[in-house]
Specification:
By secondary structure, the protein is α/β, with parallel strands linked by helices. The protein is about 25% helix and about 25% strand. The chain has 10 helices and 17 strands. The chain has helices at about 40-45, 105-110, 150-170, 185-195, 210-220, 230-240, 260-265, 285-290, 305-315, 330-340, and strands spanning about 1-5, 15, 30-35, 50, 55-60, 75-80, 95, 135, 140-145, 180, 205, 225, 245-250, 265-275, 295, 325, 345-350. Strand 16, helix 10 (about 330-340) and strand 17 form a beta-alpha-beta unit. Helix 3 crosses helix 4 (about 185-195) and helix 3 (about 150-170) crosses helix 9 (about 305-315). The two termini are about 15 Å apart. One zinc ion binds next to helix 2.
């Protein structure tokens, strides 16, 4: 098999030749047809993640060795399987759930691989969708996209379930109560579509860019707030008509995002944090107690979440994210475009 792989942190990806895996046991080998390009791929390419408070997580400390093919928003065609892989046939097109756990711990047995502490994620610890082939350890990691465009379906494996997982942490709530979304980039706009698909009506989007705020309105946000306003909390409450029960932060880069949202929370309110841009927040703990506030992290989602997102898309309720298809041989250009903020919608590498 061939793979566009990270060979050294920050250096251009190189097309390398690797032995094509032979599926054993319950494993399934797929030829990758589509792979979305995610901001995490850019962090992976640079070799580190900014955790905030001066802490850096290096990918080599996560057990990653190079060269490694990134890419975790994968759709592929089944080309071979081990003798114990049931319920799947050669030629089937499947979304590959990439956040694979150890398979043995309680979390994995409950189908919550994203909560496993020994993850073997595709595109991180194992070769991902920038390669010509990937291996799923078991058919339970494969989800049928049905009639959903495979380029769009690929994005559900990360951005789709990330947004779904976050939105589900603030729902159910009355559909006309405001939900505040900080950031109107790819995830923020997907969250608007997801909330609407789930029947929610009052959505306030916060962003520092006028073009992003317009995109949020075009995607169905009820109101927008300038994230560069002098008092963002006050602006959020003005747009919401008071304090709010739910804020989801897709940015988390400095004091203006999570803190501004947190200060807008009503008693019993919840801040869900999704963005990993290295921000930090100071909590007055008595206030957290007296006002019964919650701050909750949200990381990707489960295989069941992926099935539910596909079902929402299949029902026509979930508006598809705009995707731009690129040949897989433009993997380097795709990462650079994403890094420079020049990508509109999701970039998807296609190798058909
Ligand atoms: Zn991702
Ligand atoms: Zn596990």
């Amino acid at each position: 098999m061939k793979a566009w792989a990270v060979v050294a942190a920050g250096k251009p990806l190189e097309l390398i030749e690797l032995p094509t895996p032979e599926p054993k046991g319950s494993e399934v080998l797929l030829a990758v047809t589509h792979c979305g390009v995610c901001h995490s791929d850019v962090h992976f390419w640079h070799g580190s993640y900014n955790l905030g408070a001066g802490k850096i997580l290096r990918i080599r400390d996560r057990g990653v060795t190079l060269p490694r093919a990134p890419g975790h928003e994968i759709v592929g065609r089944v080309v071979a399987m081990g003798p114990d892989a049931a319920g799947i046939s050669v030629g089937d097109i499947r979304i590959v759930y990439p956040w694979i756990g150890c398979g043995a711990c309680d979390r994995c047995r409950e189908g919550q691989d994203n909560m496993c502490t020994e993850q073997r994620s595709l595109g991180v610890v194992q070769h991902g969708g920038f390669g010509s082939h990937v291996v799923a350890p078991h058919p339970r990691y494969l989800v049928d996209p049905g009639t959903v465009d495979p380029a769009v379906a690929a994005t559900y494996a990360c951005s789709g379930i990330t947004v779904y997982g976050a939105v589900r942490k603030v729902l159910p709530m009355p559909p006309d109560d405001p939900v505040v979304l900080i950031g109107a980039g790819g995830l923020g706009l997907s969250a608007i579509a997801m909330l609407k698909a789930l029947g929610h009506r009052n959505i306030i989007s916060v962003d520092i860019g006028a073009d992003k705020r317009q995109a949020a309105l075009d995607s169905g946000a009820t109101a927008v707030v300038d994230g560069a306003a002098e008092d963002v909390t006050r602006a959020i409450m003005a747009a919401a008509g008071g304090q709010v029960k739910a804020v989801i932060d897709f940015v988390n880069n400095d004091d203006n995002t999570a803190s501004s949202g947190f200060r807008a929370l009503a008693k019993g309110g919840k801040l869900v944090v999704v963005g990993v841009s290295g921000g930090q927040i100071t909590l007055a703990l008595s206030e957290v107690v007296l006002r019964c506030l919650t701050v909750e992290g949200s990381l990707t989602g489960t295989q069941q979440d992926l099935r539910e997102v596909v079902a929402l898309a299949q029902s026509g309720k979930l508006k598809p994210l705009p995707v731009t298809r690129l040949p897989k041989d433009e993997a380097n250009q795709a990462l650079t475009r994403l890094e420079q903020g020049k990508a509109t919608g999701r970039l998807v590498l296609v190798s058909e």
